[in-house]
Amino acid sequence: MKRVFSGIKPTGHLTLGNYLGAMRRWSEVDQHEADALFCVVDLHALTVDHDPGRVRRLSRQAATLLLATGLDPRLCTVFVQSHVDEHARLSYLLECVATDGEMRRMIQYKEKAAAERARGGSVRLSLLTYPVLMAADILAYGTDEVPVGDDQTQHVELTRDLAVRFNQRYGRTFVVPRTTHPEVAARVMNLQDPTSKMGKSDDVGPGVVYLLDEPETVRKKIMRAVTDSGSDVVHDREARPGVSNLLEILAACEGGDPEELAGAYETYGSLKKETAEAVVELLKPVQRRHQELCADPSYVEGVLREGAERAREMARPRVDAAYRAIGLLPAG
Ligand code: AQP
User: Fold this and answer.
1) How close is the Cα of 326 to the center of ligand 1, in Å?
2) Is 273 noted as a catalytic residue in this protein?
3) Whose CB has fewer CB within 10 Å in the chain, the N or C terminal residue?
4) Bridge-partner residues for 210, per DSSP?
5) Rounded Cα gap, residues 226 and 246, in angstroms
6) E strand segments, the chain
7) Which of the four pLDDT bands, split at 50, 70 and 90, describes residue 141?
């Protein structure tokens, strides 16, 4: 059975982009078809200016939402990254095969470092090395497939490069993973700025639909989405990014093809209305289950505890093998 690994970073409230780009597939497909692990990658949330209490709250919320979307601990492993030391252990070894040039070429690093500097802050070294830790997350488990949104493609490419390089230098230790993306909505765009990705740590709140937004809030955000000049509904990401984004969201919610859907709408207004209702319906069961789980925090804690134990057992042999392969003396 193939092994699947993916993660979610508790840097903000989870968004429709996170759900359509990644999480939905985890619960609907991956947990049924693979030996799958899903992780709240909390160490990654420390790479930018953070508030400790907020990271803890968001980590708990992200874990609860993962279960609320339908992840079933009988079918897959759900855990928190910092509960499994093997990630950090392996990350250091991979830093010893990665180069600083590779790190500085990462688009997300360039964007986030620029934003940090623009705010007058300093850039943490961990922001530069974050893709190596992500590679460790993936490689520790012998992962075959990494289901992610489009923005993570470059990081998975780096992971592949590091796995190949390590294997060539020190002997075959890691599986070389591949990426999978959803067919539509692999990159959901910000509703107020459809040329930028909908991000959970964006400042532009009205452009971001959060999984826990009230139905009225979802409707308002979608009805106020920036559309393009012109009035006919066509799917063209370059010329009509606003309308195309709505068509992709609608297609992802209801199934179907954004280009075909475009023909069914004569005005932006009717498209927005239909999209808003589709998103409200999509989020309803997730929000209901989230509420139930919040009333039972010990269940969530138990899932995370057991998940971490299982994950540790899966990761340790491969990370130990990497330690031996790279030339470290085994502890007696
Ligand atoms: N807008 C998006 N469209 C499609 N997929 C998306 N993902 C994130 N945003 C979109 C996918 O969600 C998974 C978890 O993302 P992450 O927690 O690793 O964070 P990220 O990729 O850095 O994106 P965010 O949510 O915007 O966080 P911030 O604002 O902190 O950078 C990934 O598979 C991602 O591709």
Assistant:
1) 33
2) no
3) C
4) 15
5) 10
6) 3-8, 35-40, 76-80, 145-147, 178-180
7) very high
Mean pLDDT of the chain: 95
What does the CA dihedral 157, 158, 159, 161 come to, rounded to 10 degrees? 90
- Tell me, in angstroms, the distance from the centre of ligand 1 to residue 3's CA: 21
Q: What percent of the chain is modeled with pLDDT above 90?
A: 85
- List the structure tokens of 50: 């953070």
Q: How far apart are CA 166 and CA 204, in angstroms?
A: 41
Q: How confident is the model at residue 232 (pLDDT cuts 50, 70, 90)?
A: confident
Q: Which residues define the annotated binding site for L-tryptophan? A: 137
Q: Which residue's alpha carbon is at the smallest distance from atom 12 of ligand 1?
A: 18
Domain identity same for 281 and 312: no
**Distance of alpha carbon 201 from alpha carbon 165, whole angstroms:** 33
Range of the domain at 306: 3-181+297-326
Domain assignment of residue 196, yes or no: no
- Residue 226, in any domain of the structure: yes
- Respond yes or no on whether ipTM tops 0.85: yes
Same-domain pairing of 73 and 110: yes
Domain identity same for 159 and 266? no
Does the active-site annotation cover 221?
no
Distance, in Å, from the CA atom of 256 to the CA atom of 239, rounded to the nearest integer, reads 21
DSSP codes joined into one string, 170-204: H-S-----EEE--SS-SSPBPSS-TTSB--TT-S-
User: Of 14, 15, 18, which is best to mutate to test ligand 1, by the most ligand atoms within 8 angstroms of its C-beta?
Assistant: 18
Ligand 1 pocket, residues with Cβ under 6 angstroms: 8-9, 11-12, 15, 17-18, 21-22, 148-149, 151-152, 186-188, 197-201
pLDDT (tens digit per residue) in 236-286 = 888 899 999 999 999 999 988 999 988 888 889 999 999 999 999 999 999
**pLDDT band for position 203 (cuts 50, 70, 90):** low
